[in-house]
């Protein structure tokens, strides 16, 4: 990898994709009350839209990973932006809350998933020594997007209503296609090799039939090998270098293309998915406990984004300041990701202790949120929540490497993100059901705080269980 050059343009494109995707997802709570009034639907049903939007783009991650491996990050990102923008345009024609759930929530989330994952993955191809720094810059787009889009969405709602807002958002999402076009595939530099050019007399002795025999031998050797095996250089099949002969070189290139096309798209996608979903890992008590802990955290992760504005409205905070509270979560989340990355790189830092401490802080702060009665106290809560949850998000992959090893990162992360995506879809509607039953938003924060705090306590014995398994 060049560790720079066009790679910084790729970082810029990836950063903007994160700003748009997470900015739109996490600012949904600003419009939740208006949608509830428009369709005369309970808040628990309305929040299902935002939960599907956020949860779908996490859940489809492994499938998108397989598509990106087959078609490349650029194509998948461009198609994803078109899918998401189309979904948002169709949502403006919704006549029922169910249609909005399908268009805005489900299909919009699938499109966002096709944007989000490739935008993260593609950065890794362009950097090696600066990979962590470049990826850190990209993921900061999430917090900045929330900081920018929350008040922006409030302004659009006041000026154009939710239908006009979704139409404008669709246009902004299409900009991800432009950003995706910047994800130029990294050209592989071929090693220079000294070629031994045969004399004309020797070339003339290699008849067409002899070349065909060599090609036949090459085809058989290629087809006898399993996918992913290393193939012997065809130049070593016969003595001397025949790669300098135009007829032979062209023939070998056509054979490469033929054998490549023989591998079906289905087999490639299935191969990647098989690698990412190794459910045998769930036989490990340590990994199972980690998955359960992460699921409990994700059940409450999006609740403050969607319900903090409702809480603020109950205590008399105006609409502009309500949107500002969500923006505060976003900007402190950005700062938290930078701080967590810096601390995690210290030799004395323990990723498990950092993760547990951050979750305890988030859980306790959320349990105290119902006692906040003005904008200032709610702003303090938003800051603590955004800062602490940044540690949880940033340390997920690091924690998996510490507990399972680098070789198991892909498989374990695929399973973890699947369960977290499902939990994201369920959490906010569940909190909404509680809010409908109690006629107070305070219950949702009690539930969320308890879930996050319980997840932190469940993670405490992970290190001891690992030693027991070994």
Report on the architecture of this protein:
The chain is mainly alpha-helical and 470 residues long. It has 3 domains: 1-189, Up-down Bundle (Growth Hormone, Chain: A); 200-266; 278-470, MFS general substrate transporter like domains (Growth Hormone, Chain: A), CATH 1.20.1250. The protein has 20 helices and no strands. Helix 9 (208-223) runs parallel beside helix 10 (246-262), helix 12 packs antiparallel against helix 20 and helix 13 packs antiparallel against helix 19 (442-459). The chain is globular and about 50 Å long. The relative contact order is 0.14. This is Major facilitator superfamily (MFS) profile domain-containing protein. The chain crosses the membrane at residues 7-31, 43-69, 76-95, 101-127, 134-155, 167-186, 286-307, 322-340, 352-373, 379-401, 413-432, 444-465. Its main location: membrane.
Assess the beta-strand content as a share of residues.
under 5%
CATH H-tier superfamily of the largest domain:
MFS general substrate transporter like domains
Low-confidence stretches: 190-211, 217-262
Outline the biggest β-sheet. Answer: none
Helix content: over 70%
- Assign the structural class, choosing from mainly alpha, mainly beta, alpha/beta, alpha+beta, or little secondary structure: mainly alpha
Number of helices: 20
Q: How far do the termini sit from each other?
A: 37 Å
Secondary structure elements and their pairing?
Layout: H1 6-26, H2 29-39, H3 43-59, H4 61-71, H5 73-91, H6 97-126, H7 131-181, H8 200-205, H9 208-223, H10 246-262, H11 265-276, H12 285-301, H13 303-314, H14 319-344, H15 351-368, H16 375-394, H17 396-404, H18 409-438, H19 442-459, H20 462-469
Helix pairs in contact: 1-6, 1-7, 2-3, 2-7, 2-13, 3-6, 3-18, 4-5, 4-6, 4-11, 5-6, 5-7, 6-7, 7-14, 9-10, 12-18, 12-19, 12-20, 13-14, 13-19, 14-16, 15-16, 15-19, 18-19
């Amino acid at each position: 990898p060049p560790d720079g050059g066009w790679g910084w343009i790729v970082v810029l494109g990836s950063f903007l994709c994160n700003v748009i995707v997470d900015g739109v997802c996490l600012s949904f709570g600003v419009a939740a009350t208006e949608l509830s009034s428009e369709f005369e639907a309970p808040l628990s049903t309305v929040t299902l839209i935002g939960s599907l939007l956020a949860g779908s783009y996490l859940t489809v991650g492994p499938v998108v990973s397989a598509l990106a491996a087959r078609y490349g990050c650029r194509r998948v990102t461009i198609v994803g932006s078109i899918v998401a923008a189309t979904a948002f345009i169709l949502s403006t024609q919704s006549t029922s809350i169910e249609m909005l759930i399908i268009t805005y929530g489900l299909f919009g989330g699938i499109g966002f998933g096709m944007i989000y994952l490739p935008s993260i993955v593609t950065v890794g191809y362009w950097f090696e020594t600066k990979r962590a720094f470049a990826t850190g810059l990209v993921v900061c787009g999430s917090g900045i997007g929330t900081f920018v889009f929350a008040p922006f969405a409030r302004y659009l709602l006041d000026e154009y209503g939710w239908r006009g807002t979704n139409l404008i958002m669709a246009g902004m999402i299409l900009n991800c296609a432009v950003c995706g076009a910047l994800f130029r595939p990294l050209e592989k530099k071929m090693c220079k090799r000294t070629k031994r050019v045969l004399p004309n007399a020797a070339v003339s002795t290699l008849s067409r039939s002899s070349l065909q025999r060599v090609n036949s031998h090459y085809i058989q050797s290629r087809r006898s090998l399993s996918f992913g095996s290393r193939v012997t250089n065809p130049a070593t099949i016969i003595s001397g270098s025949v790669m300098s002969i135009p007829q032979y070189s062209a023939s070998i290139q056509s054979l490469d293309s033929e054998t490549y096309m023989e591998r079906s798209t289905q087999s490639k996608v299935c191969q990647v998915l098989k690698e990412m979903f190794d459910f045998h890992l769930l036989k490990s008590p340590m990994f199972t406990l980690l998955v359960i802990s992460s699921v409990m955290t994700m059940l409450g992760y999006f609740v403050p984004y969607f319900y903090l504005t409702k809480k603020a409205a109950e205590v008399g905070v105006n609409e502009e300041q309500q949107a500002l509270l969500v923006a505060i979560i976003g900007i402190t989340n950005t700062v938290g990701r930078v701080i967590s990355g810096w601390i995690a790189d210290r030799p004395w830092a323990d990723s498990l202790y950092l993760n547990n401490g951050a979750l305890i802080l988030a859980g306790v702060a959320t349990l105290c949120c119902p006692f906040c009665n003005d904008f200032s106290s709610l702003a303090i809560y938003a800051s603590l929540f955004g800062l602490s949850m940044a540690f949880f998000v940033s340390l997920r992959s690091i924690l998996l490497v510490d507990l399972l090893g680098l070789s198991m990162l892909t498989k374990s992360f695929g399973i973890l993100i699947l369960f977290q995506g499902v939990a994201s879809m369920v959490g906010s509607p569940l909190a909404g059901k509680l809010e409908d039953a109690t006629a107070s938003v305070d219950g949702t924060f009690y539930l969320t705080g308890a879930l996050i705090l319980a997840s932190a306590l469940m993670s405490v014995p992970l290190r001891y269980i690992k030693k027991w398994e070994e």
